[in-house]
Predict the 3D structure of the following.
Amino acid sequence: MVVGYISRKKGFLNKQVNRSLSELLINVTLPFMIISSFNFNFSRDMLNIGVRLFLTSIIIHCVLFVLGRFIYKKFEEDEVKVLWFITVFSNCGFMGYPVVESIYGKIGMFYAALFNIPFNVLMWTAGVFIFSGRGDKNSLKKALLNPGIVSVLIGLMIFIFSIKLPLPIIKTLELVGSMTTPLSMIIIGSTLADAKVKSIFEGYSVYVGTVVRLILIPLVVLFILKGVGVKEFYLSIPVIITSMPAAANTVIMAEKYGGNSEYASKVVFLSTIISVITIPLILMLL
């Protein structure tokens, strides 16, 4: 992140370059990383863990969707929509995957990809509803065809049928996919360099949303899962993903569906900055 921040301040990066790098990450490097993480011989145990994580993710996202509708009632309506959205959707793509991959490697990515399937679908269905108050057929189509879902489906076929990819293809997937973590950190650092520091820290509601997103949600998930005796990947993947800051797409969704994009930017910036401190603390509790 420091490299991205300095590069932006020096003028090596700008908004257009950031946008292009983000498109590269979302459409190329991250899908390659996900597909390569499924390059295992079929294992019923791994599939069972993945399915349980998928179901856990559905429950978590649905509960957060309901809670997010009510816990911010005292704030302005345009702020409520943004806070509701970030309560449901964390930055699992730009930060969640890299963190999981750095800790658990390919097998962690395998489970995180399955855990994040509901996120990819709900982002363009429930997420649209949060800002616009209605559904959108085009958004549903976009949800089902987005690179995150397509790459998981391809990966599942490789895993379930134990397809042996040629070595050059495997190496290409791994090499390009390995760019995801450094690229995402550079993009985040460059984006933070744009922030008007003074304005970010203004407003009580921004802090409330940030505390809920970075501290309350992962802690509640952690204690509930521990309370029911959940261990290992069943515990670590949900906690890590829910401990990430506000989804980077919050600003894009707000702009597209009539939300307050300026306020969304503040929440994303603040939660991302503070997550540098909170994520390691949450990980220590695992």
